[in-house]
Amino acid sequence: MPRPRRTQVSIEDTPFYHITSRCVRKSWLAGVDKDTGHSYEHRREWIESRLIELAGAFAIDIAAYAVMSNHLHVVLRIDIESANRWTDREAVEHWHQLFKGTEITQKFLKCEIIESHEIKSNK
Hints:
Blueprint: H1 5-8, E1 16-22, H2 42-57, E2 60-67, E3 71-78, H3 80-85, H4 88-96, H5 103-109, H6 116-122
Antiparallel strand pairs: 1-3, 2-3
């Protein structure tokens, strides 16, 4: 039965996590489909570079990964010490490496005045 992520991740117990993601309905992630002869190998480099980009945006180290034909495995290490050293501004800057952010976070980065309740929602 599925469980919420907050009950699955415990930094106190271990910073390492094995993550998998799988394609469905005979879809191909990488490699060559033997039935059709169509190659999906071009995706492998994109997936690898995206993993590195995502790890760099967050306090995550990639310990190991494997991109298979229809799934991928990643062993991650959460760098809690690094994340705890980030200022509020650095945390928002890291988030904005991947996402546009909200109106509040954009105002925060521009050093515009934001209300106290907006600051609390950012935390």
